[in-house]
Amino acid sequence: MDIVPFDDRDGTIWFNGEMVDWRDAKTHVLNHGLHYASSVFEGERAYNNKIFESEWHTKRFRESARLLDFKIPYSDEEIIAAKQAVMAANNITDGYIRPVAWRGSEMMAVSAQHSKIHVLIAAWKWDSYFDPDLKMKGISLGVASWKRPSPESAPVHSKAAGLYMICTMSKHEAERQGYTDALMLDYRGYVAEATGANIFFMMDDGKIHTPKADCFLNGITRQTVIKLAQSMGYDVVERHIMPEELANVRECFLTGTAAEVTPVSFIGDHRFNPGGLCRDVMDRYAKLVRGEA
To answer: Which residue pairs from 276-283 have beta carbons closer than 8 angstroms and sit at least 24 positions apart in sequence?
Structure first.
């Protein structure tokens, strides 16, 4: 497999208010974000030259920083304009946008009140998060050994870099076991989410059930799909779901900016048949993000 490293590409990145060459967008190795995970980010998708819910993502970006006790030093309008400028500079009409903010190198200890806040926005062409052929058949999930933490132990409602460490570890474990991704439970043992996407189930009662987002990120795609499904006539129930309830699932799918709407064919020993619900939601979501709905 040929991998093009992200530090050695052609293009332009918005870095602290200026456009710089992709390869020159660098920070010092002794920065607080690297050593103490004081960093937040966003993942956004552009379709037909328009970033889906750009303002919403920008507000969440700012809120994530607030939850980590720092302030984004640019206005929402500046961030939104910078994202569009990065897309234009890189000739992207359909792609992925990644804003990142982190504490710099002024202080190298747990305290970092006087560290400069850096902001970077990059964009690149990106098709499906999962293999397109595999996506239509439904991906497979193992069950992660790591659990999503409680709100008392981590800033669970921020899109903070440090919260993804156990996601990476869980996904690696799942891939070693032959799965595509992993289902993560929360600290109480309830079903939570996949490693980078929220999860939905069509149960035997004909309703769509999704875990209550009380200890993990309430995804923008998740919230969009809930409203979309309701507009399609489905009842959507947000609640705590126990793993043994997977035996009552007819269909299952993941949602996320990168994953979009991705059907799931099995979780561990539980098998599902991606059918009408998955196809309907996938089609409606695809039309919505492309301005065709």
So the answer is: 277/202, 277/208, 277/234, 277/250, 277/251, 277/253, 278/138, 278/251, 278/253, 280/232, 281/225, 281/228, 281/229, 281/232, 281/253, 282/253
Mark whether 120 and 155 lie in a shared domain.
no
Domain that holds residue 54: 12-124
Q: Answer yes or no: is pLDDT of 266 > 70.
A: yes
| Token duo for residue 240 | 């705590």
Catalytic residue from among 159, 207, 212, 227: 159
Angle at 195 between CA 192 and CA 201, to 5 degrees: 45
- Among residues 245, 237, 246, 238, the alpha carbon closest in space to that of 216 is found at 238
Beta pairing class for 44-47 and 50-51 = antiparallel
Q: Look up the CATH number of the domain holding residue 44.
A: 3.30.470.10
**Does 159 participate in catalysis according to the annotation?**
yes
d(CA 140, CA 252): 11
Residue 95 lies in a domain: yes
- HSE-up (13 A, CA, CB side) for residue 219: 26
The answer to whether the pTM exceeds 0.90 is yes
Report angle CA 156, 226, 184 to the nearest 5 degrees: 40
Give per-residue pLDDT as tens, 26-38: 999 999 999 999 9
The yes-or-no verdict on residue 188 having pLDDT over 90 is yes
Q: For residue 205, what are its two tokens? A: 């009662």
- Given this model, what pLDDT does residue 103 score? 98
User: Which tens digit of pLDDT belongs to each residue from 110-155?
Assistant: 999 999 999 999 999 987 655 656 677 899 999 999 999 999 999 9
How far is residue 69's CA from residue 22's CA, in Å, rounded to a whole number? 29
Instruction: Answer yes or no: do 223 and 251 share one domain.
Output: yes
